[in-house]
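Project standup — Tuesday

K.O.: blocked on the structure for the chain from last sprint. Re-posting the sequence here as requested.
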Amino acid sequence: MTISKLDHFTIVTDSVAVTAEFYEYTLGLKRGPRPNFAVPGEWLYYEGDPVLHVVEQELLPSTGPLDHVAFRGTDLTGFIDRLKARGVSYDLRRLPEGGPSSGAWQLFFHGPNGARLEIHVAAGDALSLQG
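H.V.: unblocked you, prediction finished:
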């Protein structure tokens, strides 16, 4: 069970279009494909990777402007075991179809200071948890 890199960060906003355009213009990021989430948003890419996720705030609980930071990881079961050993609550989700990483796992939890974190694990790395 390891993390291999920073995967993305998510910003919540009351104007997805304005926020996405700002980061396109100022940082040179490019809009690209996004899974079919129920919440409106945009994914912005750098060198082929979706590094910034922008989502509509009105449909989400208030988290401030930064919703979470995600790391790419392997061995989902190992991460869950570590969280359980510490008594840390978590939320395990699957990415919907319709974009890159379809079927990947998202393991969300909070650090001791309240920061929301995600471990993003490819679908093939977690087959033992299906069913």
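K.O.: great, moving the ticket to review. DSSP finds two helices and eight strands in the chain. The beta strands are 2-13, 30-32, 41-46, 49-56, 66-74, 90-94, 105-110, 116-121.
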